[in-house]
Amino acid sequence: MPKKRIISLAESAFADLQNILVWYKDQQVPDAGESLVREIIAKMERLADFPESGRIVPEFGIANLREIIFPSYRIVYRLDVHAIKVVRVWRSERLLKTPE
Asked: I want to staple 25 with a disulfide (CB 3.0 to 4.6 A). Which of 30, 41, 44, 68 is the partner?
C-alpha cells in the first residue's frame, strides 16, 4: 500500500481559510463559517489517501497543480512525490491568474 502523503498549507491557503471565518463572523453567523472550514479541511485530509483525486487546474494544465471542488470553493494544491501543499482555497467562480 502506498505511503500517505504529508499535507501542508501555504500561507496563502491559511489566509484564505481565515478570511472565510472572518466573512461569516461579519455576517453574524460564525458557526456556519467554522462548520464550512471544518468541511474544507476534511476534504483536504482526504488527499493524503487519494492525492490524484483532484483534477488538473484548467487555467494552467500542469499535471501536479490540481484542485478539488467543494461547492462553492476550489481547493488548489500542488502534488509532489511525498507531499501535498494546499496553495489556495477560493470561491469556485474565481479564476486563477495564468502566467503572462
From this structure: 30
